[in-house]
Amino acid sequence: MPKEEMRLVIITGLSGAGKTQALRCLEDMGYFCVDNLPPTLVPGLLDIITSSGHSDKVALVMDIRGGKFFAGLNDALLSLENKGYSYQILFLEASDEILIRRFKETRRKHPLAGEGRIIEGILEERKKLEEVQGKASVVIDTSNLSPGELRAKVRELFGKATEGTMAITVMSFGFKYGIPLDADLVLDVRFLPNPFYELHLKELTGHEQEVKDYIFNNPVTQQFMEKFEGLINFLVPYYYEEGKSHLVLAIGCTGGRHRSVALANKIGESLKNVNCMCRVTVKHRDVDR
Predict the structure, then answer these.
(1) Taking the mean position of all CA atoms in its chain, how far away is CA 289?
(2) What's the CA gap between 287 and 255, in Å, rounded?
């Protein structure tokens, strides 16, 4: 089997963020899967797989559990590139609060905590993973995802029907609840007029026509949308050419109910109409808060 025909997914990320769930999902999709593989063994394993024609889809979990072996990940990736293998890195992330809760619920020990507190292990792990997170093709924040939602997201990103396309998630959020951890681009629209201060609009959301009219009839919003849609439509093809498989565009206002919701819907529709190489999903993280 030619190396260029293999689809290789390297799963890594924070302990407790859902790597096992993601690997099981890929296994159900027909991927040949190996968990906790020392990075130095990866090039040799792939050579065996390609020469035998065993599988054209491979998923490998490599994370901090590998201890000193994990430090060889960068060298292993460079070796793969030199051998002509292409790969995608799936990095799973979650907030400190959620990770602590998951470890307490399962009564498992964090691999870096030693005899210390869970948070100490999490913070040390974040430092060790900074470089590989920067190389990730896809970052998924699992803080607010159920196991079923995570599996659906993995299927969407790595299923056969998605090959050769890029997934774009346009997400509205409220700054008062924090910036989404998996955001690639963050847009602050708090400079636009706020419907929250209009009594007849306060209890509505950016889905309602009255709120949309209030926001989009403003000349500042119109000018901004023209400039921003031009920018995003300029950027997306270049992200695509660079091999990025998932782009998260986070649009934030104060509470995540009015301005960000209306603009996320509008920008999502614009992307669907213009970029045929992309699959666009619009989500509203805080609209019901």
Answers:
(1) 22
(2) 8
Domain boundary among 130, 162, 194: 162
**Rounded to whole angstroms, what are the CA distances from 177 to 97, 110, 174, 180, 205?**
13, 26, 6, 9, 17
Q: What is the pLDDT, as a whole number, of residue 105?
A: 87
Q: Which are the contacts of 244, defined by CB distance < 8 A and separation ≥ 6?
A: 137, 166
Q: Are residues 148 and 193 in the same domain?
A: no
Question: Six-digit token pair at 104?
Answer: 């307490």
SS3 159: coil
Helix (H, G, I), strand (E, B) or coil at 162: helix
Q: What is the side-by-side strand order in the sheet with 57-61?
A: 32-34, 57-61, 7-13, 88-93, 138-141
Strand blocks (E) in the chain: 7-13, 32-34, 57-61, 88-93, 138-141, 166-174, 185-188, 246-253, 278-284
Report how far residue 162's alpha carbon sits from residue 88's, in angstroms, rounded to the nearest whole number. Answer: 14
pLDDT of residue 21: 92
DSSP string, 111-145: TTTTTS-HHHHHHHHHHHHHHHHHT-SEEEE-TT-
> What is the count of structural domains for the chain?
2
The helix or strand, by DSSP H or E, that contains position 69, with its residue range, turns out to be none
DSSP H or E run through 255 = none
Domain boundary among 131, 162, 193: 162
Q: What's the start-to-end Cα distance of the chain, in Å? A: 51
Closest CA to 286 of 169, 205, 200, 208: 205
Could you list the residue range(s) of the whole structural domain that residue 206 is in? 166-284
Instruction: Please indicate, yes or no, whether residues 122 and 226 belong to a single structural domain of this protein.
Output: no
Positions in the chain whose pLDDT score sits under 50: none
Predicted pLDDT at 163: 52
> Is 230 part of any domain?
yes
Q: What CA dihedral angle connects 46, 48, 54 and 56, to 10 degrees?
A: 20
